[in-house]
Amino acid sequence: MTNHTDLSAAGLEQRTAALEAVFQRKGNLPDGFVDDFSAMAGTTFVTANGARMVARAWTDPDYRARMLQDGTGAAREMGFEFPAWHQKLTVLENTDKVHNVIVCTLCSCTAYSIIGGAPGWYKEFEYRSRLVRESRTVLKEMGLDIADDVELRVWDTTADTRYMVLPLQPPETVGWSAEDLAGIVTQDAMIGVAPVASARS
Fold first, then answer.
1. In 10 A of CB 9, how many CB atoms?
2. Considering the entire predicted model, what is its pTM?
3. Is 108 a catalytic residue?
4. Residue 8 falls in the annotated catalytic set
5. Residue 137 pLDDT more than 60?
6. pLDDT digit string, tens, across residues 83-98
7. 8, 38, 109, 129: the active-site residue
8. I need a labelling partner for 125 at 20 to 30 A (CA). Which of 97, 118, 142, 174 fits?
């Protein structure tokens, strides 16, 4: 009888090691792939990419229009790429009358090559299920109180489409450089669960 290790109570590192061993045994995991991919993701798939896009949109009206029409093209214009399995990026513009927020009800997908890997709370079942049903309540619990006269739109990630929010620019930051603006744009703001604060990072 084959001896199978019970991983039901195993920690993350132990489960990861077990999966790597299976993939390697089947020839599906080239030597060094995990380390190489982790290093690449740590330097390439970061929140700073989306922050730079937002900052440029705030300072360049032509780029802003292109970004809202074709988020994928706008990202590639700045040298950012996407995995083969999600080639479409849609950018959602927040205004004084419309607030957008994103979720993945099936799992925890994000445009991670643009806004970074999903934070822990984004992956939790409570956020994924309640945001759709109790949007304003959930956002208020997270510290963002949306006024009743502002339309709240919840966008659920699909198999091939990823979203990012173009947040409102704090009025007091008009005239800042794109570099300074990028420094205040957070992942939470590009998910839509927090405003952009004007304090310089």
1. 6
2. 0.79
3. yes
4. no
5. yes
6. 776 678 999 999 999 9
7. 109
8. 97
